[in-house]
Design a protein that fits this description.
The protein has 14 helices and 32 strands. The chain is of the alpha+beta class and about 675 residues long.
Length: about 675
């Protein structure tokens, strides 16, 4: 048991002796599965989906569980007055993290790691033969090896030694580790990847459609290294074209039950941070063997469509192929060709763009919602420090690839959904998206009405049509950002599930993820099932598929949390260079304790505390109207309002920006009310 744990447990004992008399009732011991949430005070709560109340777990009842672990909990008592359930962890089902960061205290024969955590955690015991090159006082990453029942401390092994002087590297790795992403692959997975061939072998081409002589190219970001999709095109006859959507055949190399497959499933996704990518698969596979690099033969899984010049699908073929990419495009190069009509393979690019725009218009006519998207990218120096912020809009070059990927994903989902072995649906990882939540939708509709927008709520499709009409009407208007952001918040979260309820946002009845198996594990699952559907293999349903879907959805959320945290870190790091600077901003959120403002130039969000506004008025929070209202001045701060802010604090450890509101020189607010300052003295 570590020093922190002993200290906190002493405090827990003191609390018991001083506590009030508890009124409890005995309950039949029930067992639940939940996620352990350990507070800063050291108390734990098991969050059980659908239970309605968390289960209190005292530190002495954690039973070797850490914060964020999925656990089985046995309930012992229920408080008759409050209904509070009290229980203990009976089993750790899944660790949130397999790696931890901390400081080493080493002797000649062994060491302890003191984890960097605000949560109650024991120290890790590390035998001398598991220290590697690490020394006393080093900051290190360790992997949890085991925590045997009855052992005082978990046992770990050093994975890597961190550079104390590289603050950025420490921060990025800490974000990844805290969200449960291992920083390195297992030795077995690395060994398997190194045994794989560096190129396509003659035997790999058996039973594949050979499309190496068809014009093929990739379109990706300028800094991309894992090219997992390519397009091919040729004219079959006048006005009829064959367009192939070719996806890296990862499952040809990554087989079920291997160490590579286990590591890929554990991650379930690649994670993209501002200065690095944590890949789902080793780089020898993701960036070399499976990457559809130009002028190399590659193995692919493909959807090949026959289309007329209007972009109407006349026939679809799905199967394994071999391709040879003729050219690697960046989005910027393709956009320039679309804008000017000139460039490499210009006629082909323009034809594909015309088809893609037809697909896009048809989607919106059929109920898809047209939310625009922006991407914030950082210009970094060699140490990862931000030099500037670049805002990128999704343009026709991105839409070209997006529409053909959507076409392929939909075609695969429709193919599998029609297969019913034994008169039951085949368990399959559909990508689903539920219709908007009514509790969120109603206040949004009321808010949009303030800007003159009406919603038809009779059917889900009429709601989508209303959304699109509003989004089209607000383009370029001051309220565009706020209505888009609030509209997105009304939406359900897309996830993976065997329960195919369709994809509301895209307007598709059947949809899945097929096009990115290098960086998403659900796509690997889709490829494996598709292989069985198209081949002679037995179609026995995978009864664990829904569990795999839940895991992939959870890992996707963890990756998004990591990316948000890393972006926020870079924003704070960048704005730290501008302390005292003033910027134009837009109010991006409102709460009882203040409002958030996002700078227009950098998209950096910070909090304007209500305490800093007390100089001007006493403000109350009008929740349903997303605004703060002054009691005396009539001044309001509403979501979407433009404001002027001053950067007053940039806390890297908390990844937090603090702003002050700057009063206009003429004393006018954004809403036109005069500021009233309190008299001093």
């Amino acid at each position: 048991m570590g020093r922190k744990e002993r200290k906190d447990r002493k405090g827990e004992k003191r609390g018991k002796s001083a506590g009030k008399r508890r009124h409890v009732t005995s309950t039949d011991e029930k067992t639940y599965t939940g996620v352990l949430d350990i507070t800063r005070s050291g108390m734990g709560y098991a969050i059980v989906e659908g239970l309605g109340k968390d289960i209190l777990i005292r530190p002495t009842e954690f039973n070797r569980a850490f914060h964020g672990d999925t656990v089985k909990v046995r309930v012992h008592q229920e408080n008759a007055r409050s209904g509070r359930l009290t229980g203990s962890v009976s089993e750790v089902l899944r660790r949130k993290q397999s790696e931890y960061i901390g400081t080493l205290e080493a002797t000649r024969d062994f060491a302890y790691l003191m984890p960097d955590s605000q949560k109650l955690m024991p120290d890790f015991f590390i035998p001398a033969d598991s220290l590697g090159e690490a020394k006393d006082g080093d900051r290190v990453v360790v992997r949890l090896v085991e925590w045997k029942e009855g052992a005082r401390n978990p046992r770990a092994a050093v994975v890597s030694v961190l550079d104390r002087d590289d603050e950025n590297d420490l921060a990025m790795k800490d974000i990844l580790v805290q969200n449960g992403f291992p920083l390195v692959f297992s030795d077995e997975a690395v060994e398997e990847s190194l045994r794989m061939p560096e190129k396509v072998l003659p035997g790999d081409l058996v039973d594949r459609r050979d499309m190496r002589d068809v014009l093929t190219f990739t379109i990706d970001p300028v800094d991309a290294r894992d090219f997992d999709d390519a397009l091919s095109i040729r004219e079959l006859r006048k006005g009829v074209y064959e367009v192939g959507v070719h996806i890296a055949d990862v499952t040809h190399y990554v087989r079920p039950g291997t160490a590579l497959d286990k590591d890929a499933f554990e991650r379930a996704t690649s994670v993209y941070l501002p200065d690095r990518v944590l890949p789902m698969l080793p780089e020898s596979i993701s960036n070399v063997l499976c990457s559809l690099r130009p002028h190399e033969d590659k193995l692919t899984f493909s959807c090949v469509f026959q289309l007329n010049a209007k972009g109407e699908v006349q026939d679809t073929w799905i199967g394994r192929t071999a391709i040879h990419s003729n050219h690697r495009f960046t989005y910027e190069e393709v956009q320039q060709t679309i804008d000017t009509g000139e460039g490499h393979y210009a006629d082909t690019i323009l034809l594909l763009n015309k088809m893609a725009q037809r697909f896009r218009k048809a989607r919106f006519r059929n109920g898809a919602i047209n939310f625009s998207s922006q991407e914030v990218r950082f210009r970094l120096d060699e140490k990862g420090r931000p030099l500037g912020v670049v805002i990128k809009e999704s343009g026709p070059s991105h839409q070209l690839i997006e529409e053909f990927m959507l076409l392929a994903n939909r075609a695969v989902a429709e193919c599998v959904s029609s297969v019913r072995p034994g008169d039951e649906a085949l368990p399959f990882p559909y990508r689903i998206h539920d219709r908007p939540d009514e509790e969120r939708l109603v206040p949004f509709i009321d808010f949009a009405r303030n800007y003159g927008h009406q919603f038809d709520t009779r059917t889900p499709q009429s709601i989508a049509t209303s959304f699109n009409a509003m989004l089209e009407a607000v383009k370029g208007m001051p309220e565009q950002h706020v209505l888009e952001q609030l509209g997105i918040r009304t939406m359900a979260k897309a996830l993976y599930s065997t329960n195919n309820i369709g994809h509301y946002g895209l307007g598709f009845k059947d949809y899945c993820h097929f096009t990115s198996p290098i960086r998403r594990y659900p796509d690997i699952l889709v490829h494996r099932i598709l292989e069985r559907v198209l081949g002679p293999e037995d179609l026995k349903p995978d009864r664990k598929m829904e569990k795999s879907c839940r895991h992939c959805s959870e890992r996707e959320r963890a990756a998004m949390d990591s990316e948000r945290a890393a972006n926020k870190y870079k924003q704070v790091e960048y704005m730290r260079q501008h302390l005292g600077g003033e910027f134009d901003a837009v109010i991006s959120g409102v709460a009882s304790f203040g409002f958030w403002a996002e700078t227009i130039e950098h998209k950096c969000e910070g909090l304007v505390s209500i305490l800093s506004l007390q100089e001007y008025d006493d403000f109350r929070h009008v929740e349903q109207e997303y605004r703060l209202a002054g009691k005396r001045s009539g001044r309001t701060f509403r979501m979407g309002d433009k404001v002027r802010i001053r950067v007053v604090a940039a806390n890297l450890s908390k990844r937090q920006l603090d702003y002050d509101w700057v009063l206009h020189p003429d004393g006018e607010s954004a809403k036109g009310g005069k500021a009233k300052k309190k008299k001093k003295g």
